[in-house]
Amino acid sequence: MSVADVKKNVEQKMKSSIESFKNNLAKIRTGRAHVGLLDHVQVDYYGSMVPISQVANVSLVDGRTIGVQPWEKNMVAKVEKAIRESDLGLNPATQGDLIRVPMPQLTEERRREMTKLVKSEGENAKVAVRNLRRDANEQLKKLVKDKEISEDDERRGGDDVQKFTDKFVAEIDELVKQKDAEIMTV
Asked: What are the residue boundaries of the Ribosome recycling factor domain, all occurrences included (predicted)?
């Protein structure tokens, strides 16, 4: 293993941490409807739990309503029940074979709770990135100890790892700021 391997490895892991953080942010409701909101809702499909997108067409009816149209008639009640029982606090209404999921207006108090949740998720993502930095620095120290690289190489590698960390922490801060603005927009 070389310094370049350590740097490449830590950069890939930090990128995947950012992607995971983005996925977590997408699940946080902003008051506007978007089809990604139902991505993690699981439906009982003949004995196995599958994402809602595998049993129904999910689309936007308008800016505040999501339309869910199951491909099989007998799935309408199951899909509606799965949406109602999800942790999103939504109240779907069935009209024939179309399930309409209106997005309730967020109260000021609920918006503040959501921004706290976003900031908490952001802190968790930063902790994950910093843990990756620590692991990479430990790998570099081990390489010096095993006499595979020089101390100068370790220091340069550590500086590069710190640059990655700073870049990804700044990206997390920017994503948190954008999501906060999105939530607080009425």
From this structure: 21-184
Q: What is the architecture, at CATH level 2, of domain 3-27+107-184?
A: Orthogonal Bundle (1.10)
> Would you call 12 exposed, middle or buried from its count of C-beta atoms within 10 A (0-12, 13-18, 19+)?
exposed
Q: 181 burial class (0-12, 13-18, 19+ CB within 10 angstroms)?
A: exposed
Indicate the average pLDDT of the chain.
86
Element (H, E) at 162: helix 151-184
Say if residues 67 and 138 touch (Cβ distance below 8 Å).
no
- CB 121, CB 82: distance < 8 Å: no
* Tens digit of each residue's pLDDT (9 = 90 or more) over 39-72: 788 888 888 888 888 888 888 888 788 898 988 8
φ/ψ (deg, to 5) at 42:
-105, 140
Q: How far apart are CA 68 and CA 39, in angstroms?
A: 12
Stretch 144-156: mean pLDDT, rounded? 87
Domain 35-102 belongs in CATH node 3.30.1360.40:
yes
Strands, sheet with 93-95, edge to edge from the N-terminal-most edge strand: 56-62, 65-70, 98-102, 93-95
Boundaries of every domain in the chain:
3-27+107-184, 35-102
